[in-house]
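the two lines:
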Amino acid sequence: MQHSPTGSLTERVLLLLGYVSLIGAVVAAHSNPATGYELSLYSATPLLFWLTYGFAMFVALVVALRTSGDWLRRGALGLGGTATVVFVGLPILRGYRFYGGGDSLTHLGWMRGIGSGSFQPTELIYPGLHTSATLFSNTFGLKPSHALLLVTVVLSGVFCVFVTLSTSLVFESKYTTTVAAFSAFLFLPITSLSTFVFPHTMSQAIMMSSIALYLLLKYVRMGDDTRSLSSVGAALATTSIALVIYHPQLVAHLLTMFIAVSGLQFLFRRYRTEHPIASHRTVYAQSAFMIVAFLVWTSNHGFFTGVIESSITRAVDFFRGNGSAAASAASQGASLVEIGGSILEIFLKLFGVSLLFTGIAGLLFLYSFWEKDGQVTHKTDGVLTYFVGGLSGLGVIFALYFFGSVSEMYFRVFALMMVLVTIVGAAAISYVLTTLSSERSNETLHSVTVIGFAIVLVLSLFTVFPSTFIFLPSPHITDMSMSGHQSAFGYQQDGVGFDGIRSGPDRYADVERAEPGRARGFGSISGEEIEAGIAEQYSSPRYLTVTRVDREREAIAFEELRYSRSQLNSISAQPGVNRVQSNGDFELFYIRGASE
Amino acid sequence: MFAGTLRNSVVNVALVLSIVLSVAVVGFAFAAPQDGERYSEMTLLTETEDGEYVAGEYPEVFATGEQRDLVVGIENNEQVQTEYTIVTRVERVSTSDGSVAVLEANEVRRRVVTLDPGEQWYDNHAVTLDATGEDLRLSYYLYRDGVPETVNEETAYRHTYIWVDVTDDPSETSPSLVRS
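prediction for all of em together
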């Protein structure tokens, strides 16, 4: 133990400064709330926040890696964890009315419906997020939108905690906790393509799946202490039920891991009795329980069997040569290129760090297969094999979705795979650090690790929130937009429907309706139609909503791909198109409709 | 030796305090975020026979001198008491090349009102127009704290409007509108 009092004192002072810096970051974010729509959360948040938050993360990383004191390391990881929660919670701290367009707004509407008792949670396929948020809302007396955002932040925290704990069960060393925690802080499963930090049931279910993975690892590695065994078993079974309610489709994906583990256990017990897996506790019953929970819940909702059937049919179609996967991928690529991003650029921005971790995890797998003395297998108690099995199974599902082109579902599988990759990647890095620390100078080793993590943290955290960096508009919902839509629906004339730019305001209608299902009857008007004369497009009156989000998204984020600035500006120069509501971010036009 | 112990204790206490304080600050910031948006909402409405306000049934054709009813709604979300002025004008405009140029404008009405934070207010009023023409713009400009000399879209805080035709011939004031 190099427990020199001065060295330790320096670390403590450093940690103290880190915490003070974090307080500064929170104050900077909290005292500069958004005053209107922000196209990029990154550039709109004060620089002072980024400096103080960055310093806090840096201190956390340095102290956690270097210190020999256990409680000081916990203090440092606590700092890193709190800073990460602050980062993920920026939309709340910056006073955003809500964060998340599209599905998130519909979820908010459903949550309001459940909260007001207008329908039962069981009417939804995945009410877990909504009921948790309702509980938060009622317990702490928060607005539904605020509570829903808080739940997503809490689940991001849960993800960090359980990924860290899981990694320690794969490979334990003095570096594991630190490396695993900072690997979790990268949020590799969040791609902003189909998994998000804002309310989105699948994304939060993926965050939550880290609990199941931890309990799975804990369970298989447990001894014969029946009391703690039954408590872990009960916790795992409860988590299975919770996950089914959060998102059954995630459970269908997660089952791949459980079935792979069960299968491997069966094979190793039979043919390789000397392997550590042969002495693991079997998860047959737990897997069966998860299957039953899944089947019982989904038997009332036909959706998932539908997804499975259609993806298989479409994958088969693809191999017969009449599929659409390649076409869909190509058209998405084309849109990106048109707005100035190259496929390679966007791919590296979004998946660079994930790729790196996958590579590191892959190397550890290969090494464990080829090593002669079985060191890695021994030190990891054989669980790496489970990860190989689980990832291979998920790879098959990924391919099935990809070739079946089922509405980008493959990114959902990819996100779950990234949870596993984060754990194995962190274990691999810890393994390398432990091996090298006995041979090399710790100073160099720590410096390289700090620099490495600093780089991947910046790269990865830059894509956590959608922004112009990855050619996406921010899903910031302003109070102006929310209350503007609310008034528009409130003053709606009977029989006059709504259209919008790119899509109608149906998501806002979902918030108002607060009923299961989706609001219908909304449409959009194209740039060309605006140019040709809006009133001429309609034979009867219609409303048109135009928000600042629409203008900034189309003109800046999407670089006038579908609507040009002049087209959007010309709306106010068209007789017969009355501007009847305006609040700064939201405008409502009343289109008279051309007469015969 | 003693100084070292003392220094150690001070740092330890300070560290523990900073941790406790940061948890409190983070907790508070998450529980009570600030609302940074300050805005006012202006709506142009009509009143139905049942006394409800609706964004529709706007007059399309005025006969000169004819009185038509309209409602302006204002909601104060400025978080402070605010004095508003509504300036109503009828404007002859040209709308070539996707932009609007005001050629001629007559002020029809001006109304001042002070609203408390969160207050919503409706101004039921009648409009009479004299100058005839097609595709005239009946504009409502909203100002805070006084009106500048030039009233237009650039100086206004909010701007709503409806397009109307004004005719000398009362028989043309049917709801259907003929345009070329």
